[in-house]
Amino acid sequence: MSTKDKQLGSQPTPEERTAHVQALIERLTANSPIYNILLSSVQLISTTPGVVTTHLTLTPTHVNSRGSLHGAVSAAIVDFTTGLAIGAWDLRSTTGASVDMHLSYLSTAVVGDTLEMVATAERVGGSLAYTTVRISKLVDGGEPKLVTLGQHTKYVKLPGQSGMN
């Protein structure tokens, strides 16, 4: 989508949005050692404006000494996936810097479990983006079981950008 199209308010196609988010995943995992170690196997499932669904199957790299999902991995997932949701909001190439993050650990997951992450950009303004993510464990034949809820505020103002989006 061209800059002129963005200025005129035309929306990207679903294919353009998906390709953009997939490119973000590839760039972020290639350029960030922690994302590369923890999240290089994330699979993009779907994208809509401001909402991204991804899956991750847990390996021994993702768990703590008790064999369950490490809290720091959950935090990395929240940081990563909420950035993707911001990118899906308006196809921006930068996903912002963390200002505040809150996680609630409700359950756990173990090696071999597949997590589904649904990240939502609730509001993307001129300076800040407010995002949420639900990390759930997929259960064969049943409803996903909620593992972690995350809220994340990111600073998203671009250099040279003024005022509000």
TrEMBL record:
Xref: InterPro entries: ACOT13, HotDog_dom_sf, Thioestr_dom
Protein name per the record: Acyl-coenzyme A thioesterase-like protein
Origin superkingdom: Eukaryota
Lineage: Eukaryota, Fungi, Dikarya, Ascomycota, Pezizomycotina
One Pfam family from the record: 4HBT
One Gene Ontology term of the molecular function aspect: fatty acyl-CoA hydrolase activity
Entry's family note: Belongs to the thioesterase PaaI family.
Protein species of origin: Hapsidospora chrysogenum (strain ATCC 11550 / CBS 779.69 / DSM 880 / IAM 14645 / JCM 23072 / IMI 49137)
Domain named Thioesterase: residues: 67-137
